[in-house]
Structure formats: C-alpha cells, structure tokens
C-alpha cells in the first residue's frame, strides 16, 4: 500500500469521526439548523434522531475510511450524508448579514473540499 495514499485516507476520515461523533452524541443546534430542510420531508422519526443518525453514519464512515476498510463504500456513505448536511447547515444564501453570509460560505466551501476528498477515494478504490 502506498504510504501517502494511506495517510491521505486517514486525514480525510478523522474529521468525520470527530464531527460525526459530536453530532451523534450532542446534536444541539444542529437540529435547529437542519429543521428547515427536514421539516419538508415526510420522515418517520423526529429531527433529532435524523441528525444523530447522520452523525453516526459520518463517524462510522470516517473510521472505516481511516482504517482502509471498504473505503469506497464508506466514502460513498459519508458523501451521501454530507450533501444534505452542507445544504441544511451552511445555506449561506439565506443570510442577509454579510459577516454571517461570509462565515457560512466558508463552511460551505470547506464541505465542498471535504466532498472532493471523498470523491477521490471513491474513484481511487482501495490501494
């Protein structure tokens, strides 16, 4: 295995482990941020459960990516959870205040870069 490839996978997975764990164990304000999107969907569970489950998917997926266990599948799962997370949590276009809009745009672009890392893992496969 290429050491650089393994290091890149590990560095990609670690933020999902930490941030996913935080969302799964203490969803807090994430539930309010997700509500405008989740309330439009006919879900059989409450918003907090969805946020916690999404965090668990990210934490588990991040751990699998970092460990090199089924990294393509793990990256696909994390990517599937990251897209709605990004749109629900960092909708910069909804903010009138320039400072808040700018802060949310930065977070949106950060998530876009993280998604790019996941796409790279999906495309590269396990090496």
What shape does the CA trace take?
globular
The largest β sheet comes out as: none
How many structural domains does the protein architecture include? 1
Order of helices and strands: HHHHH
Distance between the termini: 6 Å
What structural class is derived from the secondary structure elements?
mainly alpha
Low-confidence stretches: none
Subcellular location: Membrane
Membrane topology: Multi-pass membrane protein
GO cellular component, one term: membrane
Pfam family, one: DoxX
3D architecture notes:
Pfam families: DoxX. This is Putative membrane protein YphA (DoxX/SURF4 family). Keywords: Membrane, Transmembrane, Transmembrane helix. Its main location: membrane. It is a single chain. This protein has one domain. Helices cover 79% and strands 0% of the residues. The protein contains five helices and no strands. It is globular and about 45 Å long.
């Amino acid at each position: 295995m290429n050491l650089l490839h393994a290091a890149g996978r590990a560095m990609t997975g670690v933020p999902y482990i930490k941030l996913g764990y935080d969302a799964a164990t203490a969803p807090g304000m994430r539930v309010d941020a997700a509500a405008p999107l989740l309330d439009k969907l006919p879900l059989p569970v409450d918003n907090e459960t969805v946020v916690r489950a999404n965090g668990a998917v990210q934490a588990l997926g991040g751990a699998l990516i970092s460990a090199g266990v089924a990294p393509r599948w793990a990256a696909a799962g994390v990517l599937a959870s990251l897209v709605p997370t990004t749109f629900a949590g960092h909708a910069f276009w909804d903010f009138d205040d320039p400072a808040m809009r700018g802060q949310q745009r930065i977070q949106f672009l950060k998530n876009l870069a993280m998604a790019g890392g996941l796409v790279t893992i999906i495309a590269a496969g396990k090496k």
